[in-house]
Amino acid sequence: MQAPIFEESPLKEFMLSQMESSYWLVRQAVVIVAFFGGLRLKECEDLALEKIVRNHDGYRVTHSRCKQRSDKRYFLQLFLKSFF
To answer: Which of 1-5, 25-29, 75-79 has the lowest mean pLDDT?
Structure first.
């Protein structure tokens, strides 16, 4: 069974919404990381603040792939500030 695919319009509507609290702002940030990083649900659930580091280029997100792979290393994703 294949996972459902997000449609662009509800995703765009959620991202453009004005959020009143940090609760929803954090969720918008997770959507950005998940979408541009190509993360699976389990990979998003395993994200922790300690794994997100701000540097001069943007943000470095360290995570591990949830699918069985021959390498169990962590992968790094770099998100430039200009995208935000």
So the answer is: 75-79
For the chain, which residues make up each domain, given as ranges? 8-83
What are 70's strand-pairing partners?
none
For residues 52 and 62, what is the distance between their CA atoms, to the nearest angstrom?
7
pTM of the model: 0.65
DSSP string, 33-51: HHHHHT--HHHHHT--GGG
As a whole number of angstroms, the distance between CA 18 and CA 66 comes to 32
Which strands form 58-64's sheet, in the order they lie side by side?
A: 52-55, 58-64, 74-80
Q: Which residues pair with residue 76 across a beta bridge?
A: 62
